Amino acid sequence: QKEVEQNSGPLSVPEGAIASLNCTYSDRGSQSFFWYRQYSGKSPELIMSIYSNGDKEDGRFTAQLNKASQYVSLLIRDSQPSDSATYLCAVNHDQAGTALIFGKGTTLSVSS
Amino acid sequence: GAVVSQHPSRVICKSGTSVKIECRSLDFQATTMFWYRQFPKQSLMLMATSNEGSKATYEQGVEKDKFLINHASLTLSTLTVTSAHPEDSSFYICSAPGGAANYGYTFGSGTRLTVV
């Protein structure tokens, strides 16, 4: 059973702070890792993808991957109230073509 | 950018009736479509994978006779919930690989199904 685990939260941070979201996965054969943001009643939207160990930065977002520890994280710098949403970690076995397995998501609340 | 158009966005139906949900890839060919279901405060759970020109593959515990999937062309996949019951009320989302950079996935906008 392939599983993706996330702390459901809620994670509350003040505006301007760094939000740290964590995810672990069970399948050592996983190759691709994604972070999605989902607003209530809406479809997920891609924030970051990462495939290699280390850090990947895109604007205020940094994804970190450690395959040995089966761990992937997302850092959001200078958090804004508009970042308040549920963040879903998703994993798949191959680089392309197979279904994503999602975690339950972490709810982030950024207070102004 | 790549778009998967999903319709309807919301549907309310009576118990025992059937509902069809369509997902169309607008500017790329989707040979594969993944169908997910999401209950409130839960994650997206993969229901089935449809492939153009072949039978869909269903995840364990998903009734293939209840959730009929048809992938008639490279741009259209449909999910029909047959004899719907209140417990089928959920948020259904389709997703196609490709059509986006970095081996990404393109998601439909989702369908909120309410069975009364």
Offer a quick outline of the entry.
The complex is a heterodimer of chains A (112) and B (116). Chain A has 112 residues and is mainly beta.
Task: Give an account of the 3D structure.
The complex is a heterodimer of chains A (112) and B (116). Chain A contains no helices and 11 strands. Chain A has 112 residues and is mostly beta strands. In chain A, strands 2, 4, 5, 9, 10 and 11 form a 6-stranded mixed β-sheet that branches. Chain A has a 5-stranded antiparallel β-sheet with strand order 1-3-8-7-6, with no helix packed on it. In chain A, strand 6 (54-58) and strand 7 form a beta hairpin. Chain B is an all-beta fold. Chain B contains no helices and 11 strands. Chain B has strands at residues 4-7, 10-13, 19-25, 32-38, 45-51, 57-58, 67-73, 76-81, 90-97, 105-107, 111-115. In chain B, the strands form 2 sheets. In chain B, strands 2, 4, 5, 6, 9, 10 and 11 form a 7-stranded mixed β-sheet that branches. In chain B, strands 1-3-8-7 form a 4-stranded antiparallel β-sheet, with no helix packed on it. Chain B is globular, with a radius of gyration of 13 Å. The model of chain B has no long low-confidence stretch (mean pLDDT 92). Chain A binds chain B through residues 32, 34, 41-46, 49, 88, 95-105, and chain B through 6, 32, 34, 36, 42-46, 49, 91, 93, 95, 97-98, 100, 102-105, 107-110, 112.
